Amino acid sequence: MRFNRIRKMDISNGPGVRVAIFMQGCPFHCKNCFNPETWDFNDGNPFDDETIDEVLKLCEMSHIAGLSILGGEPMHPKNIEGTTKLARMFKEKFPNKTLWSWTGFTYEQIKDKEVFNYIDVLVDGQFVDELRNPNLKWKGSSNQRVIDIKKTREKNEIVLYED
Ligand code: SF4
C-alpha cells in the first residue's frame, strides 16, 4: 500500500485545522477529479508503521482538531487494511479528536468494514462532474453525502452530518 502526501495543517477537509493524508490509488477515474495524481496504485510513497507514527505525531498538536483520510481511494481493498490500522490507532490515542474520511464507494457498499468503528464522518460517492457545485461544503458534487457515522449506525439509517 502507498500514500500520496501528508498535509500537516489542512483547513479545507473537515472542521478546524486538521492533519490530512491522501492515500495512493483510485480505480474510479472520475471526470475532472481534483486529484488525478493519486490514481496510480504504484506511485507515491510506501505506507508503513513509520507513516502512521508520523501522522499520529502531527495529530498531537493541541490546535489539531482531527485527522482526515482522503485519496485516492482509502477504502479500496488494496488500501483499507492500512487505512483501518491508522484509523484504529488514531482513535485509541485521540478519542476526543474527530476522524473524517472520503471515499468513492457508497457507504452501503462498505458499511460492514471495521474502519467504521473509528470514523466519525464519511463523505461518500464518486465525484460527478455534471453535479459539481462549488458551494457545497466538504463535497464536490451533489450526489455525495456527508454522513454522521455514529448516528447512522445507532439508527440503522443514513443520518447526514450537521455542523
Ligand atoms: S473517487 Fe475521488 S480520487 Fe477517485 S477519481 Fe473520483 S474524485 Fe478522484
Helix fraction, binned, reads 10-25%
Class from secondary-structure proportions: alpha/beta
Side-by-side strand order of the widest sheet: 3-1-2-4-5-6-7
Indicate the multimeric state: single chain
> How many individual β-strands?
7
Could you tell me the mean pLDDT? 98
What is the number of independent domains? 1
Distance between the termini: 33 Å
Q: Estimate what percentage of residues fall within beta strands.
A: 15-25%
CATH superfamily placement = Aldolase class I
Number of helices: 4
Describe the protein.
- It is a single chain.
- The protein has 163 residues and is an alpha/beta fold.
- The chain has a single domain, classed as TIM Barrel (Alpha-Beta Barrel).
- The protein has 4 helices and 7 strands, in the order βββαβαβαββα.
- The chain has helices at residues 49-59, 80-93, 107-110, 149-155, and strands at residues 2-10, 18-23, 45-46, 66-70, 98-102, 121-124, 145-148.
- A 7-stranded mixed sheet has the order 3-1-2-4-5-6-7.
- A hairpin with a 7-residue loop joins strand 1 and strand 2.
- It is globular, with a radius of gyration of 15 Å.
- The termini are far apart.
- The relative contact order is 0.16.
- Bound molecules: iron/sulfur cluster.
- Iron/sulfur cluster binds at residues 26, 28-30, 33, 35, 38, 71-73, 104, 126-127.
